[in-house]
Specification:
With 245 residues, this protein is of the alpha/beta class. The chain has helices at 4-17, 35-44, 61-64, 87-95, 143-148, 170-176, 198-206, and strands spanning 24-27, 48-51, 74-77, 106-109, 112-117, 183-186, 211-214, 221-224, 230-233, 239-242. The protein has a single domain, classed as Purple Acid Phosphatase, chain A, domain 2, CATH 3.60.21. β4 and β5 (112-117) form a beta hairpin.
Length: 245
């Protein structure tokens, strides 16, 4: 790139640098693919980015996204089942940017309250019925319950085993039920997906959520829960900019 082309590119970059960030950009399971997010941030300049888990990181999150990190005022993530596949993948997400963890909590992003439910259901802990109905009793209600029954040698960093760091416990639902949120982001799917769970529908209803955004199944679609809450499922490495209707 030479001459006028360079000046044109400089002008575009200067204009982008002065663009006021706006909107929430959700990013479906990256699995190591970050270019669609980088391109979307450069084009859309969102106020916040929320990553839906399964990052596939080979370096710490902020280093991986250093090109665009400064462009976005707020970064948030929830953990996916593959983020615990190795110690390094876990550390590159969870320990490299703990302040971005949205799991089991909520954040005020661009004037809206966004809450997060990390991980997936597992029969080793709790597996609600896909079609609703009477659930089997959970094997562990809390992480503390699991830790008490886990040998010290099998604990990961003094807590639950690594494989269970991306597992939904009943205590996660109980915590989130104390919040009111506009948007609920999940890795696991609600009932709008063929493999989704009514338990998430019920949680979102209790939280008075107006929208659920989820990943995990790599299917891009619009739908709704059995109780009528709009759902947006995202494909792998799919960016989606949400702005208030």
């Amino acid at each position: 790139m030479t001459g006028p082309d360079i000046e044109s590119e400089k002008a575009k970059n200067t204009q982008a640098d002065h663009q006021t960030p706006s909107g929430l950009l959700f990013y479906g399971d990256p699995h190591g693919k970050w270019q669609p997010l980088i391109d979307s941030v450069m084009e859309k300049r969102p106020y916040a980015v929320v990553i839906l888990g399964d990052c596939g990181l080979d370096k710490p999150l902020r280093h991986k996204l250093s090109l665009i990190w400064h462009m976005v005022p707020q970064w948030r993530w929830i953990i996916g089942n593959h983020d615990v596949d190795s110690v390094t993948e876990y550390e590159f997400l969870v320990e490299s940017y703990p302040e971005g963890d949205l799991g089991g909590s909520c954040a005020h992003l661009d004037g809206y309250v966004v809450a997060g439910l990390s991980g997936i259901y597992s029969s080793r802990v709790w597996y609600p019925k896909l079609g609703g109905g009477q659930d089997a009793p959970p094997k562990f209600k809390t992480r503390h319950d699991m830790i008490r029954q886990t040998a010290r040698a099998d604990r990961f960093k003094g807590g639950v085993p690594r494989s269970s760091r991306a597992t939904i416990f009943p205590e996660d639902h109980e915590t989130l039920r104390t919040f009111r949120a506009d948007i609920l982001v999940t890795h696991e799917a609600p009932s709008a997906d063929p493999h989704g769970f009514v338990a998430i529908d019920e949680l979102a209803h209790d939280m008075q959520v107006q929208l659920i955004v989820h990943g995990h199944h790599h299917r891009s679609y619009e739908g709704q829960t059995v109780n009528g809450i709009p759902v947006r499922g995202l494909g792998s490495a799919e960016p989606w900019l949400w702005t208030a209707p």
